[in-house]
Structure prediction request, 390 residues.
Amino acid sequence: MAEHNLLVVDHDDEFVSQAKELFEGRLPVARSIEEASQIIESGDVRMILLGPSFTDEEAMEEIRSLHNQDPALILMLVAEEVTADLLRRGMRVGLAEVIDAPLEEAKIESAIEQFAHDVLKRQSVARPEAPAQQEKGRIITVMSAKGGSGKTVLATNLALLLNRLPDTKVCLVDADLQFGDVCLVLQLEPRFTMVNASHELHHLDAELSDSLLTEHPSGLKVLAAPLEPAFADDITTAGLMQMLDILRENYDYIVVDTASLLDELILSLIEKSDDVLMFVDMDLPSVKNAKLALETLRLLKFSTAKVRLIMNRSNSKAKLDTKEIEGALKMEISASIPSDASVAASVNEGRPVVETEPKSKVAKGFESVAALIAGKIPEAPSKAGLFGRK
Prediction:
């Protein structure tokens, strides 16, 4: 284990002493969540080991703040007693694993391995392994390690572009379970959401799942996120994987928008996807978070071969050197999206820019992303048939 990537957090002297003794004093230590937050911002932390002081309700909420600050972090908690309630609360705030005391290096390494194993195991339960079939739909997951990057704009415009292909059925899935914006960006008012689908899992089939989708004027189908954050708990990872299996049988492309996290759900989506588009802004915090996210995937033995790097705001005045970005992320940039004021206007109007400004540079940027997936995209329909329903 690379000790300098692991941060110990606790105000209890005995626990801190145990950790220092275990790793021969090589670990950075934070005495509070606030101090840990500062170290995360200034260092290359990939894992955090929290001591027993953080097992109560109030402390759990502090852990959530670390998870929100950097979703790519692997958060582990050491507890004197590991209970079902503690595990449930830990999962809700972003903990990867809860380790029982006393503290041992083998337990930490085992917890990391178990975290990766559990994700893959749940994936196989959700969809039994079967020979790959070309006729099944292609799943494209759009992700970002930093909030506010515009990945929902990428996902919606990409889905609409793929929907232009002749004889092609496309479904856009909003997997940002708490704060999904797909329907807002597309100006849709869903009658049903994936919460309804989750309640019908035992007899969910193609016909029923199709009835729970919302149709955009273009003919694009949308599986909407829960309408309220509280309903997110109704959606399990296995349940969402089952929904995707059904959609995959009936749609040529399934585009999945996600939250800016790297939790069990997102890892399962990455594993299930044929393509993963990592959307990164041209600024240091975004590049840093993308680097940590990719390193975490590699640490958990996930293949990054399916990941495509998409740069946002590529014409920014403060843009970084693209070669340096590629070197830092150990990955080539596959496509770039320039800044354009028309994007904000299109979001406010609920009419994606590939429909309102198809000749713009930003629309051409989205087309270059779609071309990575499906080759050349047909021209936008004429104004007389603005959405060109199929």
Notes: The radius of gyration is 22 Å. The longest helix spans residues 105-126. Residues 3-125 form a domain with the Rossmann fold fold (CATH 3.40.50.2300). The longest strand covers residues 275-281.
